[in-house]
Design brief:
The chain is an alpha/beta fold. Helices cover 34% and strands 9% of the residues. The chain has helices at residues 41-49, 62-74, 91-100, 119-132, 146-151, 159-171, and strands at 53-55, 79-82, 106-109, 112-113, 137-138, 141-142. It has a 4-stranded parallel β-sheet. Strands 4-6 form a two-stranded parallel ribbon. It is globular, with a radius of gyration of 16 Å.
Length: 191
């Protein structure tokens, strides 16, 4: 998959490094000319997410999650965000539950940890949800925190280095099913 992920300078909140941090998304993410205009991917993404989103805890049953998601959508919110940890539902399973219970709202991982699955699983799961729910799934990826990574049995290394290696591996993955519609995913990788 040529140019599978956008690597935008600055990266996710909380990452502090002298080198640019990688950012990956199945939404529209990137910086073209730094201008906030209607053609700027950041502006398009903000419009898709709506003015206000909801961050929700993950400690509910699937039935409660579906009911809450439908109510959040009915109230007019633009997006539902959730995190992933060693004691929560797996990120793509959680996203599928929320997406299936709604019709228009964007569902976003904030974040899906790279230590929760290998790059092939992350890549293919993200494309499958983007294809099944065009324009409604946003993959936010991250390295999590040392104690949570160690609870999964992994060693926590240099975050930017780990993310770059993970994104490089994702970029080498091939995906046999039909790709998502063009408006569901914009994928780019600067040199």
């Amino acid at each position: 998959l040529p140019g599978a992920f956008d690597l935008a300078p600055g990266g996710p909140a909380g990452v502090r490094s002298s080198e640019p941090a990688p950012v990956a998304s199945t939404g529209l993410v990137g910086v073209r000319d730094g201008m906030a205009n209607r053609d700027d991917p950041r502006t398009v993404l903000r419009q898709r997410l709506g003015g206000v989103g909801v961050w929700r805890p993950a400690a509910r049953s699937a039935a409660e999650e579906r009911e809450a998601a439908a109510e959040i959508e009915r109230l007019g919110y633009g997006s539902i965000w959730f995190g992933e940890g060693p004691n929560s539902k797996e990120a793509f399973t959680e996203a599928a539950i929320l997406l299936a219970a709604t019709r228009r709202i964007v569902v976003a991982t904030g974040i899906a940890t790279i230590y929760g699955r290998d790059p092939v699983a992350m890549h293919n799961a993200a494309l499958a949800l983007a294809e099944a729910y065009p324009g409604r799934f946003l993959l936010g990826m991250g390295v999590s925190h040392a104690p949570l990574v160690q609870a999964r049995g992994h060693a926590y290394g240099r975050p930017v280095t780990a993310m770059r290696a993970y994104l490089d591996a994702m970029e080498r993955v091939s995906y046999a099913p039909p790709p998502p519609p063009v408006d569901a995913i914009e994928i780019s990788c600067p040199n």
